[in-house]
Amino acid sequence: MGKQLIRCLIHKNINVRAGVRSERAEEELRSLGAEVVFLNHNSPSTVKIAMKNVDKLFLATGFGEKMVKQTQTLVDEAKLANVSHIIKISTLCGGLSDKYCTSIDLLHR
Question: Can you list the domains of the chain with their CATH numbers?
Answer without folding.
Answer: 2-108 (3.40.50.720)
